[in-house]
User: Fold this.
Amino acid sequence: ELARKIGAKFRKAGFEFWAAEGRLGGAEAALVRTWTYVNGTGRVIPELRKRYGGEFLIVCDDVALPLGGVRIRKEGSSGGHNGLESVEAALGHREYARLRIGVGGGKPDPGYVLGKFRKEERPVVEETVEHACRAVECWAAEKIEICMTRFNRRAPSENV
Assistant:
């Protein structure tokens, strides 16, 4: 959705990722989607740093957050998220920005990875995607502290 908003299209850009390049928050940016399993996400970090340099924000779904929740942090633990653990291992530290999007609120059912949201969840999912896109745009244009203040929330109807 964010690539569509900035008029960029994903194309193969590296060994294990696609990138959509465009302007975000007034600067050149690359949106990256890996095609690794989530626990291998960190494998692309060295190539991304070499190719794009600069700062990055990791965006991921998280079953530990309720559907529609958004948590933005400038550093911290992975919270048990395998993808974030992989990024941390690749970087050798926890000091990187991350935006976690709630898709559940507990342990996933066995069909989670390949499952779809229920019809009644779609409005929350669509609003949350829009909210997360605005959060990424804010992160790119302003300080992460401002982004955290404006966009962190436990559920779609509240801010933290």
Q: What stands out?
A: Strands lie at 11-14, 17-24, 27-34, 57-66, 70-73, 97-104. The helical segments are 2-5, 45-52, 82-91, 122-141, 144-151.
